[in-house]
Amino acid sequence: METPDASPPPSDVASIDRAPPPLDIAALDITRPPGEDAATDADVAPDLTREQFCMGAGPPVVVGDRVMMSTRCIGRIAEAVFRHAICTCSDLGLAGYLYTDSFDSGGSGGSGERGGAVGVNGSLGLIGVMRIGDALTLAGTGPLRLVGAHTVRGDLSIQGNLEVVGVLDAERNARVRGSLLALGPFNVRGDLTTPPGSLPLGVIRVDGTRRTAPVDVAPPCACRPEEIFDVASAVNEARTRNDNAAVGLRTDVLSAVVGEVRVELPCGRFYIDQVAGLGSIALTVNGRTALFVGGDFNLGGFLDVRLGPMGEIDVFILGSITGAGYLRMGRVSRPSKVRFYIAGDRGFTLAGAAGFQGNVYAPRAPVTIAGFNEMRGSLFAGRVATAGDLTIHYDRSILRAGDDCPEPTTPGCSGCGAGVCRATQACVSGMCGMCRTDADCCAPTVCETRTGQCLPLPP
């Protein structure tokens, strides 16, 4: 993993520079913002100066969410939506090898550790093999047919039928609501649960207990209208509540990109009308920054975002990502600090080969992954399709994105999607608190009964 380029210390002036067109820019860095927002400025320490905040004091930016009728801290939102390496509101189509694992950019070193769950509200279409580093949850009723050797290192939960033609190893528990046929070996290291009346057939080895009980696989991704984060509301609010004037940033600065345009943003909340043009953008972020885009992201070239030592950025897009270019992000040593939130429903492509590093939230949009891709971060999308091999190294430190957030004034919760609990908390009887069993936790976290915390599987 490459080290991000060194950046100058935070400045109160946004610098913009135009350079000759390079045509191969491949880096992006984004995470959460600073400051102020919505209706509850009391949550943002009103006596805190902007300079103090930009040095790292105080909570990150809070944004209004009209869907949930609340003001939420961006870090808490990130904890809630980026729990899986891949989460899709409908289907996931794979025509190559799928590999997921995890690492912690704020703690442990390289990839290769257990983690990187996959959640699919619809069906999984797979031509190839998969090795999932954590749970695999399929809530759709479509059948899953597996040819070749496959591994799921967490829990396996399937709402439809399962047919194993090759080899399938489930390293924890397995639940299958539909029919189960194993023409090749299906090995379950934990318990296997199937519903009454089901007759599993084939080569099935269960190290734990075979259970007969009702099975209902809940959608793992928070995609109901009341659960989807209201990106549009956050962008519209930023039209009038932003720090553009303080740094002299024009709202049309990226409306007609030609060649390579270089933009340097200090700490703050900034609003621009749109991103459009045939060139590429080199964006340097030195502090805690949020960028709100009031239209589409329509760029013919690439977006290259580089974080300084204290840099982190969230990008909120009111429209969709369109145009001939790819959304390509690379050279990011802290993927959990890179987050895109997209309100639109038009599809876009993530570039292959060069790699992709960051977190993308696009619950209404179909996403195509072009070519062979190695990604560090996570992807939450309407649906995902790829025709090449896909490797995702999930950055577990995203589950601590809300560490600096203020405690909510009302500690109640209404589930994993719309709730306000921390990633390590359970939502029990409408209140955030300690877990007692895995069922209390939001998937794919599990309950650490000694501490009452919901945590990822031990690496």
Description:
Helix content is 5%, strand content 38%. By secondary structure, it is mostly beta strands. The chain has three domains: 15-80 and 225-345, no CATH class; 90-212; 426-455, no CATH class. The strands form six sheets. It has a 25-stranded parallel sheet that branches. Strands 1-21-24-27 form a four-stranded mixed sheet, with no helix packed on it. A three-stranded parallel sheet has the order 23-26-29, with no helix packed on it.
How are the SSEs placed, and which strands pair?
Elements: E1 15-19, H1 50-54, E2 62-65, E3 70-73, H2 74-81, E4 86-88, E5 92-94, E6 98-103, E7 118-120, E8 124-126, E9 130-132, E10 136-138, E11 144-146, E12 149-152, E13 156-158, E14 162-164, E15 167-170, E16 174-176, E17 180-188, E18 192-194, E19 201-206, E20 210-212, H3 231-238, H4 244-247, E21 260-265, E22 268-272, E23 275-277, E24 280-285, E25 288-293, E26 297-299, E27 303-307, E28 312-317, E29 321-322, E30 338-342, E31 348-350, E32 356-369, E33 373-386, E34 390-395, E35 426-428, E36 431-433, E37 446-448, E38 453-455
Parallel strand pairs: 4-7, 4-33, 5-8, 5-33, 6-9, 6-34, 7-10, 9-12, 10-13, 11-14, 12-15, 13-16, 14-17, 15-17, 16-18, 17-19, 18-20, 21-24, 22-25, 23-26, 24-27, 25-28, 26-29, 28-30, 30-32, 31-32, 32-33, 33-34
Antiparallel strand pairs: 1-21, 2-3, 35-36, 37-38
